[in-house]
């Protein structure tokens, strides 16, 4: 399962950097100090904009945004399990009771299977919403924006691609990349 978040930064219509947060933050540091334009950074999975503090040295940025290193500890690993209550119908509990693993293990496997399937309906909807957030921030005033958004949600690839064909190159390429599993 790919749970690693990636980010993409744009300066006006130009894509500056894409990748892990620390790499994007390091790459945009020079632009943040040199340009009067605002650098917009997007979470690739959610389409939400984020703000970064790119002040200080390259080492400061790496310490601020680098993933914490995994430290090997002796003993049983902490699994990161969060206990919550769920409510199911009797037929669901009956089905879970017939499985060879515990109910929690079966539910985790089902969720992991869904998360790893980019073609599942729920993941397609999440991808549409993320693309819509990006489009709203970057293209809200562009021609064909509303029509392209409708085509996105309707799943009409040909109309969508036709409507975005005159958009700036980097934005169009980003949209095509983000919608590859939607249509």
Automatic annotation (TrEMBL):
Taxonomy, superkingdom: Bacteria
What InterPro entries does this protein's entry cite? Answer: DUF2239 (IPR018715)
Write down what this protein is called: DUF2239 family protein
Q: Give the species.
A: Acinetobacter thutiue
């Amino acid at each position: 399962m790919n749970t690693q978040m990636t980010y993409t930064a744009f300066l006006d219509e130009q894509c500056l950097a894409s990748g892990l947060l620390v790499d994007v933050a390091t790459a945009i540091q020079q632009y943040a100090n040199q340009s009067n334009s605002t650098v917009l950074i997007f979470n690739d999975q959610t389409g939400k904009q984020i703000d970064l503090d790119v002040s200080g040295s390259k080492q400061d940025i790496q310490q601020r945004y680098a993933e914490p290193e995994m430290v090997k500890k002796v003993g049983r690993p902490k699994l990161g399990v969060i206990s919550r209550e769920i409510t199911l119908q009797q037929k669901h509990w009956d089905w879970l009771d017939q499985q060879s693993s515990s109910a929690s293990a079966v539910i985790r496997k089902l969720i992991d299977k869904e998360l790893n399937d980019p073609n599942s309906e729920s993941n397609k909807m999440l991808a549409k919403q993320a693309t819509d957030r990006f489009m709203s921030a970057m293209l809200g005033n562009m021609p064909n924006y509303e029509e392209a958004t409708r085509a996105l949600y309707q799943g009409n690839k040909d109309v969508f691609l036709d409507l975005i064909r005159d958009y700036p190159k980097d934005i169009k390429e980003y949209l095509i990349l983000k919608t590859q599993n939607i249509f």
